[in-house]
Every structure is written in C-alpha cells, then in structure tokens.
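Model the whole thing, not chain by chain.
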Amino acid sequence: MAIECLVLGAGQEVGKSCVVVSINGKRIMFDCGMHMGYTDHRRYPDFSLISKSGDFNNALSCIIITHFHLDHIGALPYFTEVCGYNGPIYMTYPTKALAPLMLEDYRKVMVGRGEEQQFTYENILDCMKKVTAVDLKQNVQVDKNLQIRAYYAGHVLGAAMFYACVEDSGMVYTGDYNMTPDRHLGAAQIDRLQLDLLITESTYATTIRDSKYAREREFLKAVHKCVDNGGKVLIPTFALGRAQELCILLDDYWERMNLKVPIYFSAGLTIQANLYYKVLINWTSQKVKDTYATRNAFDFKNVHNFDRSLLDAPGPCVLFATPGMISGGFSLEVFKHWAPCESNLITLPGYCVAGTVGHKLMSGKPTKVDLDKDTQIDVRCQIHQLSFSPHTDAKGIMDLVKFLSPKHVILVHGEKPKMDLLKGRIKSELGIECYDPANTETVSFPSTHFIKSDASNAFIRSSLAPNFKFPKDEITDMPALHVRDERVSEGILTMGKGQKVKVVHQDEVVTMVGGGKTEVEFGYCFGLNLCNLENIGEEIRVYDDESLLKILNMKLSGEFGELGLRGGLGSLEVNSFRVLVCKNDACPRRIDGDGCSESGGRVYFCCNWSILDKTIAWRVINVMKNMDSSVDL
Amino acid sequence: MKFTNLSQNKGYNLPSCHMVNLSGFHILLDCPLDLSSLTIFSPISTILHEQTFDSSSSKKILDNYNLIPFEPYYKTIERGHLWNVSLIDVVLISSPMGMLGLPFLTRTKGFSAKIYATEATTRVSEFMMKDLITMHMEYKQLYGHEENNFLQLMNWKNLEAFPFKLKEIILGKDGTELGSWMPLYSAVDMKECLQKVETLKYSEEVCYNGSLIIKAFSSGLEIGACNWSLKSPKRNISYISSSIFSSGVSMEFDFHGLIGSDVLIYSDFTSTKTNYSINSENVNNQELNDDDFLLNSDERLEEMEKLNFICSCSMDSLKAGGSVLIPIGRLGIILQLLELLSMHIDSFDLKVPIFIISSIAEELLAYTCILPEWLCNYRQDKMYSGKSVFGHEELIKEKKIHIFPTINSRELLMMWQEPCIVVCPHWSLRLGPVVHLLHRWHGDPNSLLVLEEGIDTDFALSPFKPIAMKVLECSFLSGIRLEKVPQLLKMLQPKQILLPDYTKPLFEPLNKSLSCLFYTEAETIRLPNSNKLSELHIATNLASQLTFSKLKNNELTMSRLTGDLYVEHGKHYLVEEKRSTGLEIGPLVHWGRVDLGSLLVGLEKIGVKGLMEYGSNVVNVVEPVKGLIEVKETSVVISIGDESLASRISDVVYGLLNGV
Ligand SMILES: [Zn+2]
Ligand SMILES: [Zn+2]
Ligand SMILES: [Zn+2]
C-alpha cells in the first residue's frame, strides 16, 4: 500500500490550494481554492488530472476544506456545481457558515469586473448544502476505512488542520495556521499522532517574527496620526478574518483614547459576518470567549455602516472595504477617490497576490498606479503595510514538524526559494524526508502497514503485567503512551493454513500442536575417592551424606560463589543442575568406573541438568573430579 | 465484566446510575440527585409565615402541613454504600441532570477518578448547580441558622411519629436510605468538582489509561446529553441513557457509534406506562429504512403538539385575566416554549409580558446563543441562514421577554404587571421564586400552573392548599418510544443486551433474536470473561525479519518474536527494537516423540554407535565412550561423561523433535 500525493495547486506558490492524496486506496481532496492573480483557466486547479473521464464522484472519497479563504475554497462551487462533484464535503461549522459570504463577495467582484461569472449565487447555496459541518476533535467516519478529525489552526475563525487515517496510515494537512495566538484567535493545537505524512503551509518559510504587539501599536499610531490630521484611512480587507481582528483592535483603542472619529464597514457584508462571529465565539481565543455573556466582543460599539455618499464627504474616518489586496470592487473604487490625497492612509495586508493593486503598491513607492490601459491613478497618500499576519513563521513550522515527527513532509503554499531553504532544514535538522513539489507533480512513498494478529491472553499477560515501563517523553512531557516490555521473546507467532496469524506464549505452543513438551536433559553418575576431602573435613568424621554435601558445598562455593549454589535436602543445586549422593549401585547413569561403591572412600554422585545449564554443569563436574584423591594434587 | 444498577431511571430529572467493572476499571455512569425528595421540607416562605416554635417553646418537628421546617438536606444516589469511592476509576456523565450529585462524590475523601462529560453538559449543569446553591442560600438566609440539623432530628422516635409518606421518602422503600441524605455542597465544592471534569465534544475520542477508549454520542435528550461507547481490548460496551430521536433543540440521536457492541446497557425506559406490547413480528416485518424509521419527526411533532397545548391553555388563562406560572427547568422545553408563547401572545394581540426569574437565566440564555454545534439540524440551518438560533434573542431585545435574577429585583417590581407569564426553575416547588408566586396565585381560579410530570404533584402542592388555580401536568418525552426499541436494538446488533427487570415481559419473547439479560436494582450481574483475543499490530518491517520454521507433520509455521511491544490507544503494537540486543535465541520449547530407530540412525551419522534394548526406551551408547540415552514420555535424558559428545548427541535429539 502507498501514499500518493498529487499537488493541483499551491505547489511552490500561494494560491488555489488543492492537494489530492491517495492513501491506502482512499482519495481525499484537501482544499479547493482559486488563484486571485489569474482570470483565465489558471485560476482553478486542473481537475482533469483527478479523473480523465470527469467522474469525480468515484475518483474521490471526500473533499476537506480547511478554512474560508478563497485560495482554499474559491473553486468549490465550480467543482461541485459545474464539474458535478456530488460526494461528501467536510469543513468546520464556522467555515460552513462564513464561506458563502466569502464566495458571494468574490462572485460580485468578478461580475463587477465584467468577467464571465464562474458560478451563480444559487450555485453557492447548493454547494453549501452538500457540506457536512464538523466540530474540533470530533471523529468523523467518512466510510468504513476512512476517518477524519479537525484540529484548531488559529489563522481565521474556523480554520482547522485535518487529520485523516486509513487503516494504519495517518496524515495531517494543515491548511493555513498560526502557532501564536492573536487578538481574537488562539494558537494552533494538535495531538501527537503517528503520521506517514504532514502537508504544511510554508508562507513564511524563512521568517522569524518577534512579538506582534509592537507592530500592532505601529498600526494604531499610523491610523491615529492620520485621523488626527483629518485624513481618511482605507483598510482594504476581505469581509472576514482580518477585518474582525483589526476591528477588535481599533474598537478597543477608540474606547481607550476616547476617539469619536467614525469607523465604517463597507456594505452590510461585514456587519452580517459579525453576527456569525458572535454565534461562533467559542471558536475564538479564550479571552474573547469569556466575554459572551456580558458583552460579546463582536458587538462593536464604534462601528457603523458606510454609505456611498460619504465617499467624498469632508472629515476624517476609518473605512473597512472589501476586497482585500484591492483587486477590484468597492475597495478599488475607494482607492481611486482617496489615493491622490496626501493626508489619507491606505493600509495593506502583509501578503498581496501578484497582479493586484495591493501588490503594485507594495513593490517600492509608486507615485502612479496603472489600473488598465486607460486609467492611471496618482498615489500621494501614505501607505502602511501591516506586518502582522495570521500565518505561522518558520519557527512555528519547525516546531510543528518536530512535534508531529511524521515520516514525510510536503511543503505547499509558499515561495520556491524559501521553501527550498526550509526543506533543507527539515532534512538536516530533523532528519525527516521533505518535498516541495510544483503544481501537477506527484510525490509517492509507501504507507505504514501493520500485520494484524490475534494475541493470546497468556502472551499479553506475560508481556504487559507487571513489568511495565513508562518511558517519559523528555521534550514535551507528554503522557506516557508507550508501555514496553522485554519479554516479547516469549511470544511465538504462528500461522496455520487458512487461519489468522496468532501470537501465543511459548508455553501454549505445545498444547496448540496437541502434544506435550519434551525436555532434553543430561545425566551423569560418577565416583570420587574422597580421602583428601576426609583430611580437610577435620571434625566431620562420619561419612554422612549431609555432611559430605556440606563439605562439598564449602569447596564449591569458593569457586562458584557467584552462581548461588544452594544446598537442598540431600542435594546441591544451581539453576536446573542438581547433584546428590548416589547409593544405587545399579544406577543406569553410572557409566564409567566399576559400578560399585566400595569402602576406601569412593562415593558416587548422581547429577542431572537441562540443556540451558550445560556450561555450568560441566564446570561443576570438572571441579568435583579434581577433588578425587587418586588424582595427583 | 460486572454490572450493578445502583438506581433506576425515574425520568428526565432523575436518570439512572450504574457501576460497570470493565477490564479491571470501575466506571460509574452518572451521578444524579433525587430532587423530588426535597418535597418533604417546608417551602421557603411558609417558614416565615409560620411560627416554628410554639409558645411552650418545645420544638415542632413538623409544620402545619406535615412538612419538615428545616434547612433541606439532599438525597444522593441510593445504595452509595455498595461501592467504595476510592475504587472508582472513571465517571461518565450523560446529561446535565446526571451531574447534579457529582460534587458530593468529588468532595469525598479518596476520590480520584477521571470524570468525562460533554462541554455543553458541563456548562448547563454548572448553571443548574449554581442556581440550586443560590436558592438554597436564600432559604438559609431567610430562615436563619438553625442549631439542629435534619439528620440529628431523624431519630426513630421522631420518625415513628411522621406520616407514612414522609417516612417512605426519608428512609426509602426498604428503609435503608437515611445515610444517603447530605447537606448541600458549597460553591467551592462545585467549583472543585467542575475543575476535575474533562470536557468532550461529541464523538471525540479519549483514551483512559492507554486502553479504555471512550466516546460520547448525542442522545438527543437535552443540549449536550449523550450516550457512551466504551472500548476495551476485550469488550466493547455501548450505554444508552434516556434518548430522544429528534427534538426541536438538541442534536439528533446519533446511534451510528453505538452499533456492534459486545454488550449494550440499555437504561432508557421512562415510557413503559404506555400499554404497548412488542411481538416478534413487529421486529421482523420492519421493512422501513432504519434511519427513516428512527429519525422521522414523530417525536418532534408530538413535542410541538404538547407545547402548543400548553400555550393555548396559557392564552385561555391570560384572556380570563389570570397569570401563568411555568416552573420547568428543562432547558430544551423552555427554549421552545418561549418562542411559541410569544407567537401565541402576538396572534391574540395580547400585551402580556413574559418574565423569566432565575439567578442564572441571563447567562444561560446567552450561552444557548453560542453553541450551534450542539443543536439539531433545524437550529443549525437557522444559524447558517444568518438568523438567531433561538427566538429569545430577539424577544429580549424587543422587550417581550424580561429576565430577572430574583423575585426581589427592583426592576421586576417596577415592571410588574398582571396578568403575566412567569418562567422559573421548579426545585420541587420548595426553593426559589416559584414558592412566592404559588402563594400569590394559588387561590386564583383564572391562573394556571404548568407542571412537569415526574413528582408527586399532590404532595408537592400540599403546602399551597387550597388550590384554586388550574394545574396542567405535562409529560414531555424523555426517552425512546417503546415501539421503536426493538427495531433500534436489532439495528445496533449488540451481542448481549442488559435491560431493566421490569421490561422482562416485553422483551422475553424476543430472546430468540436478541440475547437479553435483565438487571435488578442493587444486584450485580456478572458476565463471563470474554474469550475475545487481543489484536497485536506487528510492523511490516519487523515481520519481514522474523525467521519462520515449518513444523514436521504439521501445517503450522512458527517464529519466535522479537521487537518492542507497546500499548497505545487500546491497541498493542510490536515494532522493531530501538536497541537491538543482537542475541540469537535458539529454540526454547520442544515437543514431539523421539523414535528410537531414527535416533540410532542419527547417532550413527555423528559417529556414535548405540544399541537398542528391546522392550525398553533406552539406547546404550557403546562407542566412542559408554553412555546411556533414556527416551521418556516428556523428556530425553542423555548420560554421557564427555561434554562435547553429550552436546552433539543433544543436537541429534533436537533434530528429531519440533521446536521453536
Ligand atoms: Zn488563509
Ligand atoms: Zn492560504
Ligand atoms: Zn547414580
């Protein structure tokens, strides 16, 4: 069995995230995004690579969407309503609630730009009806063999990393995530899992960021300065995510500084989005969550709806307008009006896709921006680039990879040169196989597979009780999951024809084969002349068996002290080796010598032992033979 | 596995309580509080009205209504003495009501169990406990500090003088329950209890002690309420508490995770009053699609019908100038009732306010607006379409519903108008605002009291007599309808079902198709140890390193194992050793018979000459040295005075045996 990973989008780029993973025969599409930088066929993943015939229902087991950003969900209505995919789709509750707003916003921008619309509003609604919403940590059985589970990813409301497992093979697809909490969201969280594959975003593959509070202050200061001077602030954002984060920031600042300058949201869209944020407040950070009963943090006090007539009205204001990156729509319209004035301020997100006005503004300090062949806008306003981003930095990615320690890592959603550097680090520092395939490339490797075998109670009992060992994980102090034992070798794996493999304890094998255990033992009966011994044992005058053995024990203990020679009733023992005084003149094991005990101090010793102790046995016998008085000392 | 039913299901407010011993773990299922026993105490305000000490200063133990005028004690799980608190490993809480008795347990010395409950159950239960504690405090404050406590008064002399009803509640039917009465836990007890709870989402998997896998699945009874699936390496158990297939509020009953267990503990029988008999045909002729049959909207329609009936009765009272008192604590019911009541009020164009009086109502209602993940599809769809999940959100903004923490709130006094509708917690009509309002309205024939079935209404209302106001008793669905049970059981395909004994007449006829065992309160059922084998997962790379030997005259192949064994998430894994010992282990166990003829041939090959003694099992070795080989039933003894020869001969013998 194998894992095959076909990258349809976000391979060595940011945009149209879409990875199709075949894992032990199941095929999952992770994300179904669109690329903001293109208006031709390149905007969507090349779905024909999934199925030549276009029978996507049989080609895919399910689709998983990580969050509502268009580069992760933008192509979904097209794929379901136009391409005809009808199978299961999973996303978190907030993503399901908020995605239609994002998609509709984008559709309107497309229509507004005079492009041919790829899907209708009805298409969006029909598409969303096919979606099954999931909660974090909930186990969802997609079919008999495929199980998925969502983990908190930070980034935006409802963003999730997804774990998927088929039989013994597991993988995680992160989507976009943030390893540090922000104003309204918590940090990504995941369990330690046994993984064959981790597919992670790598937007900031080489950036290490410090505290964001300084940069938040910078942003607030820039906005404050602008409105103090009577300027207008344009904050182009998408309706969801960044808008709410910045709004919490501003609303809070306005309260503290007692500012009266109006803050507007363009269109009712963001206001409506705030309603969803209020209901889904459980998906925000703990701090925001705790406010629900007294004052829901998404009940913004200083925020009003923007009316188009205010566009050229005098006086300062702050306006949130969609779409972000100024790729069209209302934010572009406002940009045209406000950019030429020096007192105004435009804030730009940390990342803008190539081809957008936002991207043009970011590169250098342009004084003019060409919108199209005929339109040119003078840019005299100030530009403030937001340097905080809801993506993890390089340290966060490394931490996650190290924490999960998968067998393979695939990097997506990043820029090629930076990804290469990160790939090198993952290979060299963590010793993990790492790839950064381009779009339409496939990466494959074998999947983990365990052979299932029944295990008898006797085996499990003998190897698990009572010799537990709980190795502690030094790095994370995670709960000890592993219980180890060294008595595995008492286990026997058996395979009968047409039967399931079974592991039993060695003692059970004999009964299994319907016979009894047969031991191979050794015996030896030999005589010694013990005149010397007589001399040594001054006080012991009688040839009494017990006293003989006592003397023998004394002599042998000198040599074999470490073996733990034990005196038994009329015998000496070490492990299975046992020696006693033999009185039976017809003893069959009395092989050498004359076969009868005579006066004159010849005493016979009968020994027996099992094969495990053959070395010890012969050592003891040889020492005893050396005591024979007929041997020259 | 052992199973003990500690107390049987007595409806929504008093779910059942069981102890299960599975793979050596002691698991307590639910820890409810018998609130109906509160009825033996005088309601809060009668104490003020009444002279508790008569002029001769001798203490009166009962008030004029034959109730006990002291600070209430609370009755915890009966038969608590059957188990030792320190032995409990796991506590599973299925519903908010199943948690009300938990602080009693967690404050007990020696308690160290892990507690699991869903997030929503924990929060809703926290609200209920908070309210109970607040209401109890109010009682205490008004009544002042009484030297004697309830238990001290319960001596035999006093008890003898009590009316039968009181005695029965205090001592239980078998007269042994005096010990289960406790003074209420404190807010600190509650807080410490809640800190010990590990909260879960529906179908989140947790693993206790590496081997017990626990999952909660929606039961549909209430927001957050659940059934359980327990998987141990040897046995899978499903536990069904009170469940509702589809309600208008909480998430639908999710039975998929409960399918195919070894043992199904079925504890949901609240509706056995229905005269319905099950026959086997009923089970077998069911041709409907299972999901359709079980999850059709019958239950929801029935629920709506009842709620609408309450509303129309309420409207009649309001129109006649009377007020409506609804002391019901069931969250799901209240949420729907609020929506329906305001619709009815609007449709009759009445200007009647709805007052909610409860110390926790404001927070609780706000909480219900932020848990769409725990609600039924109908409510979730409302959320997706951008509407409020529950009507109360708008109704509060529109000032049609007013919330007050206590009946003494200044704002309430200022707004107060009659007729009105008051919704408040019931607390068996002994604590909280309901008592004051009953005193106010009990004599008004136009007013209406809406009660939930489940307590002894006559007894509960006794201190408010005479009652002129109308009393409407409603029974809301709190369990699976009996006629759906056989179909459900058949679909869940358990190998064994544990059912309460009183259902025996219903289920015994089905024993052919379903293997049923019937449990009795306080009796332990022992199920024989399962002979199911554990599964060992062997890493493929390890398996490929094993050396297999095929046995002579046998179709079996065998190999001795190597590797590291560990347990994770209830599964046994064998993987390649981290640090290989590198020691080659030869066969350690041998079996089979040694044939003397073959032995002689074998010996000859290594240059040993032996002679067989006829009629015996002995080979005499004659060359190169003298020796003896005895072939016995379970052993072969080689007696040779030469170490290396002995060893070579043993190799020959092993060659004739099977070994691993
Ligand atoms: Zn994103
Ligand atoms: Zn992205
Ligand atoms: Zn002998």
